[in-house]
Write a structure and sequence with these properties.
Length: about 170
Amino acid sequence: MAPSPTHKHRQALPLAQTALFLIAISAYPTSDSSQNIPQSTAACPTAADTSHQHLQGRWNAELGLQPAAANAPTPQARATATLQLGPHPELAQSVRGTVQRAGTTAQVSGDVDDGDLTLEESINGTNISATWTGRVVDGSCGKEIRGTWNNANPTPSAPSAIPFVMRRQAGWQ
């Protein structure tokens, strides 16, 4: 006995409803909570996990207690510097760049190891004129470093050791 036209219609109806349901579900936007958003701490490294890659970019540094000019009303003043760091072309785990301070540009190169920063500064590109040694601040996500700038050739007007704070500037530089 052949199925009646009504019976064929009843079988096709669930298939059509299922197909429409699947099409509708596939077009429905998913919430961002179900997206694969990384929740790792790599975006905020600990001081010990900070690498040369975290040093790359623009930094502002504040150097404290710089001697002021002889005619200045206060005996001490603060100095600022801007460091621009990028990958070192010859040393894979290091950075190289420039530091601008008081109208002078010097070259810098160095690295960070287990949270300890070492940068060598050279005014003439050959000899070390100063070093920056510091420590990445815990909880700063690798964006703040505190330490000491050491003048390789100290004079009465340019002391040998000056404390500094470096802060990473936002954005791609």
